[in-house]
Amino acid sequence: MSSYPHLLEPLDLGHVVLPNRVIMGSMHTGLEDRLSDLPKLAAYFAERARGGVGLMVTGGYAPNRTGWLTPFGSTLTSRRQARKHRLLTDAVHAEGGRIALQILHAGRYSYHPFSVSASALKAPINPFKPRALSDRGVRQQIEAYVDCAALAREAGYDGVEIMGSEGYFINQFLAERTNKRTDRWGGSPENRRRLAVEIVRRTRERVGEDFLIIYRLSMADLVEGGQTWDDVVALGKEIEAAGASIINTGIGWHEARVPTIVTSVPRAAFTSVTAAFKPHVKIPVVTSNRINLPQVAEEVLARGDADLVSMARPFLADPEWVLKATTDRADEINVCIACNQACLDHVFAKKKASCMVNPRAVRETELQLLPTRRTKSIAVVGAGPAGLAAAVTAAERGHHVELFEADAEIGGQFGIAQQIPGKEEFAETIRYYRRRLELTGVKLHLGGRAGVDDLAGFDEIVLATGVVPRVPAIPGIDHPKVLSYVEVVREHKPVGDTVAVIGAGGVGVDVSEFLTTTSPDLAAWKAEWGVGDPTLLPGALAVPQPEPSLRKVYLLQRKAGKIGAGLGKTTGWVHRAALKNKQVEQLREVNYERIDDEGLHVTFGPKREKARVLAVDTVVVCAGQEPVRDLADALRATGRPVHLIGGADVAAELDAKRAIEQATRLALTL
Ligand code: NAP
Ligand code: SF4
């Protein structure tokens, strides 16, 4: 008896039977834009097909150039391109998989001056204003979708996903917010739906019955002027009648100010929306957003919220997600922690996506885990993310590895991150590594600092000794009211009601949230961000009602720029909004004059003006880190070569993504 009977139940779609209820959702990797990258993309999808996922969806391909997401972005518009895509579809089919191509027309989200939409209304997240299409122009776009689907079929795809959500082109016709037309493509809800329905109807006519059409339907726009529930339900029924095989859930436009996929969004937070929609259609319905573990997916399906689950990022983190669920090895899954650091943040920076916890993602042809030809004995010192990644990767290649950690637990900086409200997922990565250490037979030494003598006799020494908090030279820094972030977050030292946080990098922002917030349950989280009942409120948008802050917090930095400017593109705005919700007072261009019984004395600007005393009970220092290299220096003094990785190598702007990638790359060469 499987632990996940609903998840692993096959689904008969008539001409094709999916082996389970898991769809790998669309995710742009950056390999879609050039045909020359197709071999890499084929390797990426083939590895995931091998891992047993039921159906995969590619990143978005525009049906014409006006629909480009970015200039020269991915399109499927010619038979020549379709022939080249055979490489990808053949690779997937050879592994027994199925794959659909996503057709994505960006409309007013197109990042170029030739964009088009229902009306000439600029999106708040794009500098380019679109041109309103004429009636003929609209019909040409429909043709382009249909042609693109036909080409996808010619290319060997098993179907297409028509992207109708997230605020893209079709969604822009559906919502009053962006459709101000008065012709047959606007004015009434029926007219606004016409584009979506025509695209599906005409596509079905062209591609025949034995080809999947997934329609991604925006069930909660999460913007002002979004669709009503009546609109959503009517659209679903018409899309079904027009010939769609499956309806997938879309939640939130890109311009929405409600987080929908970051790590602080509770798991499966939006499946109730799909559950409300599902009874209105007969075709299978897919749910999505923040589902990352088989148990979570199983609960969603067992509750009857949906017929299938879609996950995108979890397949970057672990291509064998389904295989591990099928063989009851869920504890071996490398879980997506929804950090966005190496996937979406890369895509928005026009870099190739990867995964923080799996640097091999999207680099399958480059980073291959080949067995070693000469087994070595390797000592790794430090069991933070860098040391853990180095140890398990080297051991998996066949080396004998011993891992030394001074603390009583593994995890390093992730042990601190997991304590922050909304960052609990980081515990999953520690759990994953703990299990992988067991499976690969790494010998773990905990609770004792390794010295030069402990490391005698090893062929290779990898030092991932990490960092210590920086102690800034401020008069009074040794006052009893001063604590480091480690003392606050990990050691739970008492903190007063009024607090100044020195340093507004990632840790300062995290600590401010730690001091002001308790982890909300789903209802409290929805209230905080204004997520209402989609069946009652247009766009599912309610008035946000944040919980009051636990403390009065000042967050300070010396720089003039925006607080948290260095945070990720897709997560920084969520952190800044969370701080605003808790009325954290942000001070910039600060000079730290001294700390005494009165509090923290500050002035502002280069002329040290506007002297002010922040009468705080506690000062928490989050002023970055210094590398720990004593052992490296001692070993080098004895003439022994060492490999220095992670924060011990470069502490400035230390980040786990770089640490894990550096460690993995090193371990692949040892
Ligand atoms: P950080 O990003 O280097 O920020 C520390 C801040 O402290 C600096 O921005 C600096 O700002 C201030 N500072 C530095 N030296 C100081 C001094 N001598 N006196 C007073 N202030 C000083 O370090 P972090 O916040 O510890 O973060 C470490 C790494 O973890 C970063 O790469 C960060 O991105 C990553 N991280 C990321 C997240 C995330 O959500 N993505 C969360 C946590 C950590 P001023 O000079 O302007 O004062
Ligand atoms: Fe998930 Fe983070 Fe990896 Fe993206 S980088 S797939 S969010 S773990």
TrEMBL record:
Residues annotated as domain FAD/NAD(P)-binding: 377-635
Transmembrane segments: none
Entry keyword set: Flavoprotein, FMN, Iron, Iron-sulfur, Metal-binding, Oxidoreductase
Cofactor(s) this protein requires: [4Fe-4S] cluster; FMN
GO molecular function terms noted in the UniProt entry: FMN binding; iron-sulfur cluster binding; metal ion binding; oxidoreductase activity
Family annotation (Gene3D superfamilies): Aldolase class I, FAD/NAD(P)-binding domain, NAD(P)-binding Rossmann-like Domain
Matching InterPro entries: Aldolase_TIM, FAD/NAD-bd_sf, FAD/NAD-binding_dom, NADH:flavin_oxidoreductase, OxRdtase_FMN_N
Location of the NADH:flavin oxidoreductase/NADH oxidase N-terminal domain: 7-332
UniProt-listed PANTHER family: 2,4-DIENOYL-COA REDUCTASE, 2,4-DIENOYL-COA REDUCTASE [(2E)-ENOYL-COA-PRODUCING]
Family named by the database record: In the N-terminal section; belongs to the NADH:flavin oxidoreductase/NADH oxidase family.
Identification of the protein by name: NADPH-dependent 2,4-dienoyl-CoA reductase
